[in-house]
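so my prof wants the structure for this chain in the tokens format not the other one, which i didnt know existed until like an hour ago. anyway here's the sequence
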Amino acid sequence: MLKPWKTMGSKALWSLFYVLPILLLVYALSIGPFLVITSKIEESADSSVTEAELMKYEEWGETFYTPLVWVINTHPACGDLFNSYVNFCVMLFDLPED
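here's what i got, hopefully its the right format
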């Protein structure tokens, strides 16, 4: 007897059920390192990244993270959580200057 959870379609559906939330979590958590890295590049006076390249990164970040920023701006609790997370990322990635 063929069990419904063993069919190819249901395996793909279950895979999507597990993979999609993980991808959304990675997307949401990636904004912290992105903000820290771009601010470090911006603060660095001897950076090899030109102003035009930095602007391109920032424009890409604004476009890529627009849905996440909308959620943060419309839900105050998410904004507080976001600020705490960014502060954590700053502490985590705060490497000593050479």
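also thought this was worth mentioning. The CA atoms of residues 64 and 95 lie 26 Å apart.
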